[in-house]
Amino acid sequence: MFIMNKVYSLYESIQEKGYKLTEHRKTILDVLIENEDYLLEPSEIFEKILRKNKNINFSTIYRNLEIFVHSGIVRKINLDDGKSSYQIIFEDQHIHSMICKKCGRVEALKGCPFEKIDMKEIEKKGFRPDSHKFEIYGFCKECLSNKKC
Amino acid sequence: MFIMNKVYSLYESIQEKGYKLTEHRKTILDVLIENEDYLLEPSEIFEKILRKNKNINFSTIYRNLEIFVHSGIVRKINLDDGKSSYQIIFEDQHIHSMICKKCGRVEALKGCPFEKIDMKEIEKKGFRPDSHKFEIYGFCKECLSNKKC
DNA sequence: GTTCGTGCAAATCGTTTGCAGGAAT
DNA sequence: ATTCCTGCAAACGATTTGCACGAAC
């Protein structure tokens, strides 16, 4: 039961930050876990919870997603359309992704291009980097084979 | 007068797409050109136009920014706060940037990390890339020396 | 003269907030 | 018992839209 260990460790991260472990939080996490390879928008999370015959208010979803991000167990990505999407983080790895523009599927890339960057160029400009983003957008195998792309 | 050549070529790009060359469009472009090293939000563009003792409606600004992006002369970037920012593109170069989180200053990076990516990894997943994003966030020299970061 | 652009006001969309009652610790 | 969590409804900010008039081609 590897998966349960991973889930418990998510629960611990929440409690370590002083947040309570409520049923709603577990439900939202369930949805994120069941879609661990996908970026989900708050509205998609809402719908998937409905399909479980549960109902959680939008504001509760938003508030808890922020809490999860703050607890380091969820990643927030701002896509080009201006909407935010969320994805569970099982290990606290630093990753970059291939993101399917059709279905939101996310696949991890090995390595990080930032490590190959010429730091001298950045230092010369007097710039102090504190974060970076590298994302490849395109279409995943499944969406391509559906011939809808 | 290199700058004017560059400006005329922007005008041409607009007209080539079948859009009319209006005074408002020129004014918005002026502001983008005067801030070519910065990311500007629509509200900042609005204010800078006001300071020129001109007034352009917000909806006109939004509509024209979309048109400029569609004409390939303006770049749109979605920052983490969910707001959109815009920047003029003088040459249709493919660039990646260092972005100052305080003042919005943008400095170009040499090279592109995508070229160093192991394409075999992507092919193996059956993923078809169509675009990518590499951005370094941090603080620029000026903002650092203001000791406000 | 036709097509396209604009200002205005209202609508929309995603997201956030204040508050009063309810649940976790 | 205290602190935190939630639903609700309302507020919010950024962006978009319908429409009637005006400007570019």
Core attributes:
about 150 residues, DNA-binding, 6 helices, alpha+beta, 5 strands
What are the segments of chain A in which pLDDT stays under 50 over at least 5 consecutive residues? none
Distance between the terminal alpha carbons of chain A, to the nearest Å?
Answer: 37 Å
> SS-based structural class of chain A?
alpha+beta
Q: What fraction of residues of chain A sit in β-strands? A: 15-25%
Q: How many strand elements of chain A?
A: 5
Morphology of chain A: globular
The overall pLDDT of chain A, averaged over residues, is 90
Number of helices of chain A: 6
Largest interface: A-B, 40 and 39 residues
Order of helices and strands of chain A: HHHHEEEEHEH
Quaternary state of the chains: homodimer
Q: Percent of residues of chain A in helical segments?
A: 40-55%
- For the report, how would you describe the main beta sheet of chain A? 3 strands, mixed
Strand order of the largest sheet of chain A: 4-3-5
What radius of gyration of chain A results from the CA coordinates? 17 Å
Any overview of this molecule?
Two copies of one chain form a homodimer. Chain A has 149 residues and is an alpha+beta fold. The first copy, chain A, contains six helices and five strands, in the order ααααββββαβα. In chain A, helix 3 crosses helix 4. Chain A is globular and about 55 Å long. The N and C termini of chain A lie far apart (37 Å). The mean pLDDT of chain A is 90. Chain A binds chain B through residues 76, 78-82, 84, 98, 100-101, 107, 109-111, 113-114, 116-118, 121-122, 125-141, 144, 149, and chain B through 76, 78-80, 82, 84, 98, 100-101, 107, 109-111, 113-114, 116-118, 121-122, 125-141, 144, 149. Strand 5 (128-139) of chain A pairs antiparallel with strand 5 (128-139) of chain B. Chain A binds a DNA duplex (25 and 25 nucleotides) through residues 18-25, 41-43, 56-60, 62-64, 82-84.
